[in-house]
Amino acid sequence: MSTEMDIDPPTTTTITTTTKPTKSSKSQTLTQTTIRSPVFSYAHLSLVSPFLSSSSQNTPSLDTLTARHYLTTALRQFLGDTGASLAIDMLLVKGTECWVRVPREDLAAFAAAVTAYPGQNVGGEEQMLMRVVGCGDWLGALVGREGEGRVW
């Protein structure tokens, strides 16, 4: 039976500092940390309508059930019932954006399914779809990139 450690070997980061040179040593190790591959990955998603301008007030706000419905429909269309059974944890739903957690090995399939989904008609003419703003293994790095779009 294979463990996660067998699949992805850990990455070791060593931080050193240079001290006053002596005959025996030129540097001293302050700390050594082992960073293992995470079990979960995270995705930042946004509800958009391809036919409305981004400044339009017609885009409805998301709630947890609606976001889960969009994601499950996209996964079912792309991967069938196997995709619909993918474990998705809704971390935060705010306005038209949501943050989700998925198993690390399923992140690529999840992002592909959400990206390939053509959208869903809501209330007659309006088509809504989820857009992947960002995804990755480390939530801290993903949250830090949230304001990048406003800068560039």
Secondary-structure map:
Elements lengths: L3 H4 L3 E8 L8 E9 L4 E9 L15 H16 L1 H4 L4 E6 L2 E7 L3 H10 L3 E3 L3 E11 L2 H6 L3 H4 L1
Antiparallel strand pairs: 1-2, 3-5, 3-7, 4-5, 6-7
Helix pairs in contact: 2-4
Q: What structural class do the secondary elements suggest? A: alpha+beta
Helical proportion? 25-40%
The count of β-strands is 7
Q: Main beta sheet: strand number and arrangement?
A: 5 strands, antiparallel
Kindly report the spatial arrangement of strands forming the biggest sheet: 4-5-3-7-6
Ends distance:
47 Å
Rg from alpha-carbon coordinates: 21 Å
Number of helices: 6
Mean pLDDT, all residues: 76
Q: Please provide the ordered H/E string of secondary-structure elements.
A: HEEEHHEEHEEHH
Q: Looking at the structure, what is the overall shape?
A: elongated
Low-confidence stretches are: 1-7, 10-19
Biased composition (Low complexity): 9-28
Domain Ribonucleases P/MRP subunit Pop8-like: 40-117
Region (Disordered): 1-28
Protein name: Ribonucleases P/MRP subunit Pop8-like domain-containing protein
